[in-house]
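Hi V.,

You were right to ask for the full record rather than a summary. Here it is.
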Amino acid sequence: MIQTADRPAALADLNVLVHSCHSCPLGNTRTKAVPGEGNIDADIMLIGEAPGYYEDQQGRPFVGAAGQFLEQLLGSIGLKRHEVFIANVVKCRPPQNRDPLPEEIGACSDWLGQQLDIIRPKVVVTLGRYSLARFLPGQPIGRIHGQARKVAGQWVMPMYHPAAALHQGSLRKTIEDDFRKIPAILEVAMKEQQPVLVMQPTVPETPAVEQGKLF
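Predicted structure:
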């Protein structure tokens, strides 16, 4: 495990490697790689699918319309963007915003794994089916969205991708309702990580011997 003092340097080194990565063909078609950004001490890590047009241009995750909705969702639970960490399963934009291919997801898998090791979030929020598949492969998002569960010791909250609400307005309320469940899950996760105080057993006092009384 990366030592706490080494985490900022480890994250900076990882970002450099992502920017120079050509492990799959997306490295040849991207404008900018999008490693991810946010608070290295974040309790919540949100993981999307892949960068879109604006993310590819700026090298930052969730800066388009879906990103604006994500910031509104964060605001609904009292959080700002800079208080969480935001990343994607795939670090480079697939051409024409197509779905990422299995080999592209595989090429980026280690980058995401290292980010999880560095950030150490208490709750991971998966946004969309590709990030859901990272933790719960084979599970349909339509059935398990909004239902937090532990996966290998990590609390995971599956959610629809914010972009889904832009294409299907009926999902907006569902996403908003699911998002409001996050604080309760975070509270549970934080309580689990609190150190347990071990109470020393008390030794009963020896009764005082009454003056002049023999036992």
